[in-house]
Amino acid sequence: MIEMINVYKKYPNGIVAANGINVEIEQGEFLYVVGPSGAGKSTFIKMMYREERPTSGEIIINGTNLAKLKASRVPYLRRQIGVVFQDFKLLPKLNVYENVAYALEVIEEAPSVIRTRVMEVLELVGLKHKARMFPTELSGGEQQRVSIARSIVNTPKLVIADEPTGNLDPETSWEIMNIFEEINARGTTIIMATHNREIVNTIKHRVIAIEGGLITRDDARGDYGYEG
């Protein structure tokens, strides 16, 4: 599903965030991306949805070479990818239902489809009963659930999560992971950058470690592997 071929990324300040990355990720995998701060994890995942462009190399997702993708086609690429952020990025003036529905409205989905699909994903994340509440009325864990619902409402084949439990307490983090497990069990590929050692060591999946812009470890069912 995803292939990176000799990918380099050098920022204008001289920092090299990707230093010749080669990796393949299959449809339906659950992949943790781990490594120390500043290692290149965020750049690694941002290049997958064209938030960042590689300096050189190829990134192929579902047959599309992102390095050659025209800027006008990027929104269409992102319709196929769900992204979950550490800080939720919800629209404060929209309620829960409207935040999730927005992802379908921008692609001009039929209103009847929007209503059905939004309520389905809100039920999946356990927030159907809070559909009319606003982000400020929700806990951090509930806001992250809304973010996840928004990321999957258009049934993407790939969900990318950047430190999705980073701002949450341990109990809530496990609840969020259970949702990701359910999404993955339905066939969606999950790529999750995380510093949460306990989650990685308990819920076993493939682990890629990045240090200095290089993949230093790729274990089919690995541990977190860092003390810090």
UniProtKB/TrEMBL annotation:
Kindly give the SUPFAM superfamilies that the UniProt entry links to this protein. Answer: P-loop containing nucleoside triphosphate hydrolases
Q: Which GO terms describe its molecular function?
A: ATP binding; ATP hydrolysis activity; transmembrane transporter activity
Q: Where is the ABC transporter domain?
A: 2-227
Name the UniProt key words of this record, in alphabetical order. ATP-binding, Cell cycle, Cell division, Cell membrane, Membrane, Nucleotide-binding, Transport
Question: What membrane topology is annotated for this entry?
Answer: Peripheral membrane protein
Q: Which GO terms describe its biological process?
A: cell division
Could you tell me which PROSITE patterns the record lists for this protein? ABC_TRANSPORTER_1, ABC_TRANSPORTER_2
Cellular localisation? Cell membrane
Q: Which SMART domains match?
A: AAA
Q: Does the keyword Cell division belong to this entry?
A: yes
Give an example GO cellular component term for this record.
plasma membrane
Q: What is its main location?
A: membrane
**Keyword Metal-binding annotated:** no
A Pfam family annotated for this UniProt entry: ABC_tran
State how it assembles: Homodimer. Forms a membrane-associated complex with FtsX.
The family assignment reads: Belongs to the ABC transporter superfamily.
Q: What function is annotated for this protein?
A: Part of the ABC transporter FtsEX involved in cellular division.
Full protein name:
Cell division ATP-binding protein FtsE
Identify the species of origin: Psychrobacillus insolitus
